Amino acid sequence: MASSATVRELRNRFPKVRKLIEAEGEVLLTERGVPRYRLTLYSPSRAPSRPAAKDYLRRMKRLQPRPMSAAAARDLDEENRGGR
Predict the structure, then answer these.
(1) For the chain, first and last CA: distance in Å?
(2) Which of 6, 43, 56, 74 is the most exposed place for a label (fewest CB within 10 A)?
(3) Alpha-carbon gap, residue 49 to 23, rounded angstroms
(4) pLDDT of the chain along its 84 residues, tens only?
(5) For the chain, percent helix, then strand, then coil, each to nearest 5?
(6) CA 52 from chain center: how many Å?
């Protein structure tokens, strides 16, 4: 069971309450004899993971238009040359 302390003890004798929290892991704070708050040790959550590195080359290749075949390039060149 968790230890208990009053709000007044928290305000006036914090080092004592802090030692209780460190020893028990949890302290119930009472206000006028009624349990009102629960103090626990802080445990940091996992560090945020790093996002994956962007693959810019793959992205660039995906966004570029498809290359023309050699036959299509020849046909376009002939069409643009006209009667020259």
Answers:
(1) 98
(2) 43
(3) 32
(4) 678 899 999 999 999 999 999 998 899 999 998 999 999 998 888 877 888 899 999 998 888 888 889 999 898 888 888 766
(5) 45, 20, 35
(6) 13
